[in-house]
Amino acid sequence: MITVSEAHRIADTETLEKLYGAPSGAAVEKEIDYLHPHYQSMIAASPFFVLASGGPDSMDVSPRGDAPGFVAVEDEKTLLIPDRRGNNRVDSMRNIVANPRVALLFLIPGIGETLRVNGRAEISTDPALLERFRVEGKLPRSVLVVRVDTVFFQCARAIFRSKLWDPARHIERSSLPSLGTIVSDITHARFDGKEYDKGLYERLKGALY
């Protein structure tokens, strides 16, 4: 276990800013408090984002995905996000009930730049709102209404460094432990991992909505 010595631990913003310097140029100018049409086009092209939230006792980051445009831009200050079927842990939702502040990071396949949105979320079960997001005859359980505070793009360095979209760097699923193996091992075989793995991805694909 690594212990960070006091001599090398940064514990205040003044020291942090001396180390990194102040942002300038596009790094500052790109941040606005509304969804500019250019930012709206990035959201419309994105089939995937991660949702960060924090409650009084926990933090959470949750993947969300669907067909491009599944996050609806209601207006330049509002996003609507259907909540589809999942594992019913509702970690993000619990946090939002206690603390509405959220952060969203949108990814677009093949594109290096990402989009960051910070705002405040509410959970709605308004029937008319749910109906807008019906897919394959199924309604979402709820819709997140996100009031936008800040929006800005993130440059492509992280994607370039990771080679995230490079097919040559894609990893075979079989090279990692199966999900059943993981849960079986961490529960000391109290969970039947082999049974869980049987037809797992077919079950998931059949229960997307």
Summarize the structure.
By secondary structure, the chain is of the alpha+beta class. The protein is built from nine helices and seven strands; from the N terminus they run αααββββαββαβαααα.
Core attributes:
209 residues; alpha+beta; Pnp Oxidase, Chain A; 9 helices; 26% strand
Order of the strands making up the biggest sheet = 2-1-5-6-7-4-3
In round numbers, the mean pLDDT is 96
The percentage of residues in β strands lies in 25-35%
The CATH superfamily of the largest domain bears the name Electron Transport, Fmn-binding Protein, Chain A
Main beta-sheet annotation: 7 strands, antiparallel
Task: Report on this structure.
With 209 residues, the chain is α+β, with helices and mostly antiparallel strands. The chain folds into two domains: 25-162, Pnp Oxidase, Chain A; 171-205, no CATH class. Helix content is 28%, strand content 26%. The longest helix is centred in the N-terminal third of the chain and has 9 residues, at 37-45.
